[in-house]
Amino acid sequence: MTKIEYTARCHCGKVQFSFRSKEITKGLRCDCSICIRKGAVMSLKYIPAEDFTPIKNMNDLTDYRWNDRVVNHLFCKTCGIYPYHGDEEYGYRVNLGCVDQINPLSLEITVYDGKSMPISKA
Ligand SMILES: [Zn+2]
Known about the structure:
Elements: E1 4-9, E2 16-21, E3 26-30, H1 35-38, E4 42-43, E5 52-54, E6 61-64, E7 73-76, E8 84-87, E9 91-94, E10 108-112
The structure holds zinc ion (ZN).
Zinc ion binds at residues 10-12, 14-15, 76, 78-79, 81.
């Protein structure tokens, strides 16, 4: 399966990254307590770390942990945009609104029932 190289950035451009994935035609939204507030359309799958490349200085990100403190919710320190979350072990779930080649509102959206998860860590 051919993979596409996607490029992405936060709003101010201090956080930039790229990743390889087969063509993205679907997005994910979640109704857990943090996602419902962010409102982002995310990648359906986690992008494996070997396919994920940070381009700009990751010190421009800050991380917000809550509840079980497992998922690191990342935000640009300057513009406040959430570009992705995850880590090297689990891979990265990407905010598709940050991706240059994608219009997230044109994708088929799956809604994940994060609100019903006992620790709501989706
Ligand atoms: Zn920014």
